[in-house]
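Bit of a strange request maybe. I'm writing a small parser for structure token strings and I need a real example to test against, not something I typed by hand. Could someone generate the tokens for this chain?
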Amino acid sequence: MDYTNIHKLINYTRATYKIMDEEWKKSVLELGITQAEHHLLTIVYYEKKTSMSKLAQLGLIDISTVMQVTNRLKQKELIIIEKDESDRRVSYVILTKLGYEKVKKSQETTFKLQAYIEKFAELSKENREFIEKLASFHKELNQHFYGNEFVQWVEKSSKNDAM
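Reply from user aminoacidic:
Good idea to test on real output. This should exercise your parser:
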């Protein structure tokens, strides 16, 4: 791939991410939480009960960041943190009723990018197939860089409406 194609890929990907990021930030701020807090709440929502290390792994963030964010979530009474009875070094995170309600409320948001993709896919069979191939490519890309466990979790959580 020559530099021109890499240049396009980097900039178009960054611009697409910026669209998602700005809408996500706005939607969660309306709920009184940050993007990092929402991200971890959503993982706990699908996992029901998860360890700090699993949150870091699935959230693609450092364990020290997980500790900081979960402390804020605990102060906001959106999660509880329990110690493992057999190994007190391990802590588990569980949503409170309020945390569960925040996640459910966040799922009511329809993003402009999501609406655009859905409309684009409805225009033709070719467009729908293109979106499916693009999603498949992203899955393979993430499997390469983040592993099978991460991709399996994304696939599982996208099919489940936990709780």
